[in-house]
């Protein structure tokens, strides 16, 4: 196993709901997760969040800030990630599947009614007692 990679997950909040997608063709296939991806060399966490959300959904976000972090082991895939969770407000646009090879759909969920199964970083975040809307 190599060194951990850095992933960035983004809580996009609109009308007290959070945007999730169903993953496909990657680790966590079939689980629900936030928009996000890998932190690129020289990129700030905020820049990564804005870029990834737009690339994956077409949405523009604002007020991007750090929310939490998890240490995520994917034993079966032999992957290790440190996931940085960012919190952002919806600004404009309609969520669309811009990377159909990676996402089945985008849907808005309340924190009290999340889809299942969740991607491992989201499960680990819940274990911390994190709530993005508090």
Fill in the keyword field for this structure.
134 residues, alpha+beta, Nucleoside Triphosphate Pyrophosphohydrolase, 7-stranded mixed β-sheet, 2 helices, 7 strands, 43% strand, globular
Structure explained in plain terms:
With 134 residues, the protein is α+β, with helices and mostly antiparallel strands. It has a single domain, classed as Nucleoside Triphosphate Pyrophosphohydrolase, CATH 3.90.79. Helices cover 16% and strands 43% of the residues. It contains two helices and seven strands; from the N terminus they run E-E-E-E-H-E-E-E-H. The protein has helices at 45-57, 120-127, and strands at 5-14, 17-23, 32-33, 36-38, 60-74, 79-92, 103-109. Strands 1, 2, 3, 4, 5, 6 and 7 form a seven-stranded mixed beta sheet that branches. A hairpin with an 8-residue loop joins strand 2 and strand 3. 32% of the residues are buried. The model has no long low-confidence stretch (mean pLDDT 96).
Short summary of the structure?
With 134 residues, the protein is of the alpha+beta class.
Topology readout:
Blueprint: E1 5-14, E2 17-23, E3 32-33, E4 36-38, H1 45-57, E5 60-74, E6 79-92, E7 103-109, H2 120-127
Helix content range of the residues, please?
Answer: 10-25%
State the oligomer.
single chain
The total count of strands amounts to 7
Question: What's the CATH topology label?
Answer: Nucleoside Triphosphate Pyrophosphohydrolase
Rg calculated over all Cα atoms: 14 Å
When the domains are counted, the total is: 1
User: CATH-wise, what's the superfamily?
Assistant: Nucleoside Triphosphate Pyrophosphohydrolase
Summarize the helix and strand pattern as letters.
EEEEHEEEH
Terminal CA distance = 36 Å
Known CATH architecture: Alpha-Beta Complex
Structural class: alpha+beta
